[in-house]
Structure formats: C-alpha cells, structure tokens
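Subject: Sanity check before I submit

Could someone independently write out the structure tokens for this chain? I want to compare against mine line by line before I put it in a report. The sequence has 749 residues.
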Amino acid sequence: SRALRRLRVEQEASLAEDHDDDESSSDEEQNDGGGGGGGFMAMLEEESSSEEESSESDDEEEDEEDQPAVATSNKSKKGQATAKKEQAPVEEEEDLDAILSDMKIQNQITGDEAENNDPSASTSSSTVRSILLSKAHGYDTQDLDLDYALRDLLGGAAVAGNPLFIDDDDIQQQQQLQQQRGRNNRNRGGRNNRRTVAKKYLFGKVKPEWGKPPSFVGGGLGVKELTQDVLEEEEGNKWSVPWPYNESGDGSGEEDDENKEKDAFPNAKWFTFGMSDTYSEINRKYEQMLSNPQAGMQDPNLLAMFVADNPFFAETILQMAMVLYYVNDRGRGSDLLRRCMYLYETALPSSLLPSNNANNAEANNEIFMDINRQPNSGFFACLFRIMQTSGMSGCHPNALAVGRYLLSLDPLRDPMGVLLILDYYALASRRASVALSEEEEDGLELGASFIVDLVESEKITINWEDDLTSRHHKCPLLQLPSWAFSYAMALYRLSRKEESDQALKTALETFPMVLPKLLEMNKVNVQARSFQMDWPTVLPAFNHDLNAANIDEVNTQIEARVARAAGEHLVRIFVERNHKLWKENDVVQWMYSCSEKVVKGDEPQLEKEADSGEGAMSTSTELPSKQLTSTFSPALVRYAQCDPSDYEDRFRTFPPEAIALDPNLVGPALVHDHRRGRFLRGGQARGGGGMMDREMMEDVPADLMEQLRGMLGMAGNEVDLLDPDSPILQLYLQSLLPWAQVEGVRPPR
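---
Independent answer below. Compare away.
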C-alpha cells in the first residue's frame, strides 16, 4: 500500500505540474458531482505530509524519553495501522490491479496530451473522437444517464416545483458534509480512516441489488491496450489493425516510412476487454450449453437460472434483458440492461469513457475497439440496445449521446449500423444552446449543428470490403440517403437557406425515390393542384425511379444491382423512421420548391405561369420533365444485412403465453444474493447426468482414454464426474470411490 501511495503521489504531482491551469476546472467538476476527486487529492496531501512526519519521527525514536510527544504520535499511528488491517474491505475501495491499470492507461493518454499541448495544433487538427465526444460540439456526459434524461424529458431537471427536481446546491452541500465527515474520521483515527476512491458511473446510478462486480484478478473483466508487447504474449493471436485503419494517408495500404507520416490515424490506440480465467470458464460453459440441444438453453427459464447463478456474466444478462423487452416487460428489461452496462463500465478506465473535460475530449488521440474480439462484441451490443430502447422511450438526447460514443469506438466500419439512426436522434432531440445575442432567441440547435460539423469535417466515410472479390469500396457520408437529407434539414434549421436549398437539391437528384415515399408516409395530397404546390407536374420525374423495369435496363452489372438493392433497403429504413421530421407545412413547401428547381431548372416555372393568365395551368403539363435515377455507391452494401426492426420505434412483442416465464425464476435473476444456492447443478449445466457423456467419450481416442484412466489409477474403469454442487456429505462419500472424480478438481498425484 505504501508503494501504491507513493506511485499515486508522484502521478498527481506530475499531472499538477503539467496542468496548473486546469485547477479551476477540476474544482468545478467536484462541485458538479465528482466529489470523490477532491477528497482524494486532499487525502493524498495529508498522507504525504504524514509520511514526512513519520520519517522524521523514526529518526528520533532513540530519544523517546526526551521527546514523548513523538513516541505518542508513533503509537497512535501504529494503532491506526492495526485498525486498518483489521477492517473488512468495503465495496467502495478499488482493487489494486484496477487502480494500476487505470493509471497506466491514463499515463499513456496524458503523455500524448503533453506532446500535443500546443493550442494552435489542437485547433488546427481535430479527431473523430473530438467531434463526436467534445462539449464544443454539443456533447454532454449527463445525457448518458437515462434517469437524468427522463427527468429532463418530464421537466424535472429544470422546474424546482416538480417532485422529480434535484437541486445541485443540495447535492454539493451533501458532498461537502461527506468530505468534512471523512476528514474528521481521519483526524480521529477511527475505523473509517481509509482511503477510498468513489467512481462516478456515467450511465446511471448503481442499485444495491446489483452487487459489486469482481475485478479482473477477482474473476471479472478487464481492459488492456493492444500494444505489440501484449500481442506477443497472447498465445496463437493473429490480430492486427483492421482495414481501413491500417490504410496509409494516400490510400495505398502500404506502410513504409514515407506513408507512416501520412497515416489517417497516427495516434490511434486500440483497446480490448480481457476475460479472467473464471470469466472464461463461465463463457465456456455458456457456449457449451448453447451448442448442446439437450441442455435446453432455448428455454428462457433456463436462461434466467443461468443469470441467477452467474450474476456478473454480461452476455446472458443482456440476452435476458432482451427477452423481457420482447414480452413487453420494459421495466425489468431496462433494469437488466443498465445492470449489464454497469458490468462493462466498472471494467473500463475513466480515460476510455466520455468526459466533459475539454482536455480529454480535444486530445489528439483516437481510442478504438475491435468488435471481432470476443469480449468486445457484447459491449457493442449493450450500447446499441441502450441507444435503441432510449430512442423508443422518447429520450432522444440519451440515445444520441450513447450512439455518438458507440460510433467513436469504430467510426469507419460502424459494425452496429449506428449511422442509419444517429441523424434521426440528432434532429429529434431539438436541444438548443444558450443564446449568445438578443437576436438569437432560442439559441443554436445542437443536434443540427452536430450533423453539419460531422459532415463537413469529412472524418467519417463508409467503407466496405467485398469478401468474394477482396475489393475495397469507400464513399463519403453524404452517399448515405439518410445523411444526405438530414444534412439538408440541419442546414434548414440553422437558417442557412442557400446552403440548405443546394443540399436538398443534391439529395433529390442523387436519391429521387425518397421524395415520393416521404410524401406517401406523411399522407400528403399529391393530386391537388394550387398556385403554391403543383405536385402532378413534378412527381413524374421522381416516380420514374420507382419502376424496377426502367432501372434493370440501366443496371446491367451485378455490382450495380447489388448496390441498388442495398440502397433501397437503406431508403426504406430512413423513410420509416424519419418521415415525421418532414411532415411540417413549411418543410413540405420547401421540398416542393427544391424539387421544382430540380425538374424545371433554377427559375420556378410556376411563377411564370401564374403571371401569364388562366391558361397557364394547362400548358404546365406539356413542359418536358427529367427522368431521375438514384445512384448508390457499392460501399452501401456494408449495411445490407442491417435488420429494419432494430430501427423502429417499438419492439415486436410476443404474447405472454408464447414465452412462459416463471416469475419465481425471473425474480432471483434480477437481484444478486450471494447467500442463495445455485439453480443449475453441474450435471444440468452440461445437459446430462453425472456420468460422462457417452458421445463425448466416443470422440476421444481409445488409447488416450486408457492413458487418462491409468494416470488416475482407474485403468479399465469409467470415470464418474461428481457434481460439486451436491450435498457435502454425499459428495465426500462418493469421492472416496476410486472411479469417481469431482468436476473441476484435479485428482491427487
């Protein structure tokens, strides 16, 4: 503990020298809810001063009679140390390995921050992470908390008269009382005289019934950086930086000394979750139960028992949460989903999580994760489900914040298809910033500003690698139909009229099939004709793209047909979810104005006809119109496998009788109780009885099986695996038999 304390003091001292100007911001973060940080610094200062005093007193221990006060202080300190040893570990204390891993990763990231501390360099170069997760682009970590988003949605976060309102002054006062109480306990030398580090969980408040997840050493999850040394230590690992992140700046994909300086992500760091031996063993049993039909893992009641027996295994908790959502039990499903996120967030260091600190967000570092590594896939799926369920609940700011964090982990490949829905959450949130002048009454709309910033930065592209031809396809973000129209809508909301008109005309020319579908979903009367809107003269040019026979004559190549099929799939997803944003009267009028310019030219032909007299309307239909055809990039095939139901505003639930869940089994899965016995015995978890499966024994060679029996001293006999969950007396008596062996226990040599 002394070495750890000195390591922390040195770490904090180095950070204090490099970031003297950030002391005021750290005080503000402490007042906003991170009270554990300030108390931790005060404790470090008191600990360091106490070490100096103890070192001076040790040198003068020989003169105890002349200096009794020093001896008394030494005895009190020894008494405090003895009291500390006798204390039981509490849940708030961080484990040694978690602290060291967090400090190691923090050192790596803050070291790069010091190298790029030049303000001119930070403003000239921006990273994908800085655009997605910086407060300057409208990102707030408070939006990750679903409880806060619900209070904000109901007005409880802003109205003091609301019973859901939480006053920040009361929270700060409680934190100050806790800090003062902690200082008094340290001065008295009581049993609470311990150093604790309270971690602030961004995704919501932790419930006591969830329990405390074990650390990596204790049998849980951990996080490590995929450096060259770590990859060499892993047995049989062939991981390398995936495409397109390993591509050089010129697009050649070759990594020589000249192209290394042109790398698109020179400071990218790859991290991954790591499974401990205990966690890997639980994962192996789970995969074995899935592969064994006799285990009956398809039964949700069996899944609930597995969750109750393994309360800190995130994969099954996520699946159980989705089962509850599909039976329309959203309350308990949301509880399990947040509990699953709590397991991952406990393992993540604070440097990998979003932060409102400008220095953390604007650092010239990209932090990525590869979903193809097994532990990471569950983390990606959990974030996606939180984003999905928050959007269904109407908490669009929460869904937007989670989606932006999920996209920052792998922005070029987008394995979860976040880009197909992220633009909708940005526009539907309708959150405005504080007005900077009297002319701006409502301030700047943050969601629309984020879309414009992300598109104009050109940092994110659509990338797809064809497995059959091994060809790489890439296209800009505006080649997605949803982002082409959302970019125009964002400019329209920001009152940038000329740019919004040009962006919408470009989107209508590139994807003409979207306009008829939007009008149909919004039930716009396209048969009526007036001097303001005359859809019958405009729509024929866009309806031409809906006729499959006309398109097949143009697209003779297989690649073009596959790209068009993928594009139609994306247009269907966009129209189904985003059509409500395009139903306002002013928006419909704006769409007609731009579509008329696309078909008839920049000068509105309708104004000329209105000035010419009564016979103008009859001559308008005789004007030649264009035949527009959609153009889709082959890179869009990357999203061809996305399920449209994942982007709808509700789940397709099953009737309760279709999935007969036993409430006596679901209840224990929701609450962690270490005193409760196991539901699944060892034999049931294997899908059979206590005797080794005959089919498994047939797969083992006879000579190897006979050799194994000889090593156990049971040559010629079958090995009977005993269930370790059996009654202790029964297990002891059965283990005395020479052909019996307890599962998971090595036989004596």
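---
OP: Matches mine. For the report I'm noting this point. The CA atoms of residues 345 and 425 lie 23 Å apart.
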